Amino acid sequence: MEHAAPAEVVQRGLQDIVALESHITFIDGKGGRLLYEGYDIRDLAEHATFEEVAYLLWHGRLPTRAQLDELKQRLVGLRGLPEPLARLIDSLPTDSNPMDMLRTAVSGLGLFEQPEEQPGPSSVEGALRLTATLPTMIGRFQRRRTGLAPLKERPDLSHAENLLYQITGREGSEIENRALDVALILHADHELNASTFAARVTASTLSDLYSAVTSAIGTLKGPLHGGANERAVELLDEIQDVSRVDEVVSAKLARHERIMGFGHRVYKVEDPRATILRAWLHRVGESAGNLHAYEMLEKEREVVHRKKGLYSNLDLYSGSLYSLLGVPKDLFTPIFAVSRVAGWAAHVLEEYQDLRLIRPSALYVGPTELHYVPIAERGP
Ligand code: ACO
Question: Is the CB of 261 under 6 A from ligand 1?
């Protein structure tokens, strides 16, 4: 007997399902507002650093000067990789997908040095360790695949400065470093997105933070989640010149193709993070004497809004910004993880404090009256 599926019972993709209470991030999709622990993202992007935002997400309040200094010091002190993990990263094929490398390295970190008291509130230690080491893992892999030796540690660099240094081997200018710092702030959390949900599902079984972040990285890897910025840059590569934007984008829209970096499931107006990152793309482009990407994106924005009424999201600008900073395209999503690990850890900590195994149900639509058939009777 086959069951008919009453469509109204199933919320595909868990869309519009409120699965839990959280005090971390609030999204007002109609008003175009995003708050971390009650603070507007515009305020944080204007005044805070990524380190301050990480503290805010993990502790629910902004740090005092002493607390921030301690956090920064600890992050710097925790950047080094254990020797077996460094060897593991060096043994991976140099053409590995960097997200596969990162997932493997985080899993390896958990294997080589699982904190004794996991899981539990002490996982702030794990959050610090993971946040500190992700740039080192990416940097080591990037150096190796380009035939270079790993870089010496630079304790004088902030988190964003160190990330850029690890990837490019050079110190960024003040404006480049601040642009990357802001990009990290903007990506740090976004409520129950797919990777954060995956992290919380893992934590809800009382598994450890490292396993939760491994799940999250595997989830972020998918092009529907972490990969749109790469494709937004690929479109610019295809268009090449601002004079061709209207023609190429209009043709794609006429073929019902999606233009990456536009539209959002939650925001019905412009994603506030896109507004902020657009301004930073302009600043960095201007200081580099290269507004090519910015100008093409401005035209793209005008065409897509005119033809489809869609607004830009964060992914329209992040890839072009990272390209200007000298970051290879396949490291855009790993950079997303460097930032989002702060949010993943915050959600895992929150999950531990209000634990309830996450286990939804499925509507069974398969047969129910089958009987075992011996293998010899099943045909060739
Ligand atoms: N380009 C062209 N058309 C689009 C786009 C787009 N980027 N986004 C939505 N539409 C159109 C759809 O084709 C559909 O049109 P129709 O009604 O004529 O069929 C209509 O808008 C509604 O589309 P839905 O997919 O139902 O809208 P939803 O809100 O569920 O989609 C999503 C959100 C998945 C992000 C979508 O806008 C999209 O695919 N955008 C491109 C990918 C992207 O930029 N992802 C990054 C998301 S933000 C982030 O991760 C930081």
Answer: yes
71's tokens: 């956090």
Is the pTM higher than 0.90? The answer reads yes
**Cβ neighbours of residue 231 closer than 8 Å, sequence gap 6 or more:** 223, 260
At 39-72, the pLDDT tens digits run 999 999 999 999 999 999 999 999 999 999 999 9
Tokens found for residue 27: 């999204």
Query: What CATH number belongs to 228-324?
Result: 1.10.230.10
Catalytic residue among 315, 347, 354, 371: 315
Is 43 a residue of the active site? no
C-beta atoms surrounding 2 within 10 Å: 8
Which backbone phi and psi does 80 adopt, to 5 degrees?
A: -70, 150
22-222+329-353: CATH class: mainly alpha
Domain boundaries, the chain: 22-222+329-353, 228-324
Read off the pLDDT band of 225 (50, 70, 90).
confident
State whether the beta carbon of 228 lies less than 6 angstroms from ligand 1: yes
Helix (H, G, I), strand (E, B) or coil at 237: helix
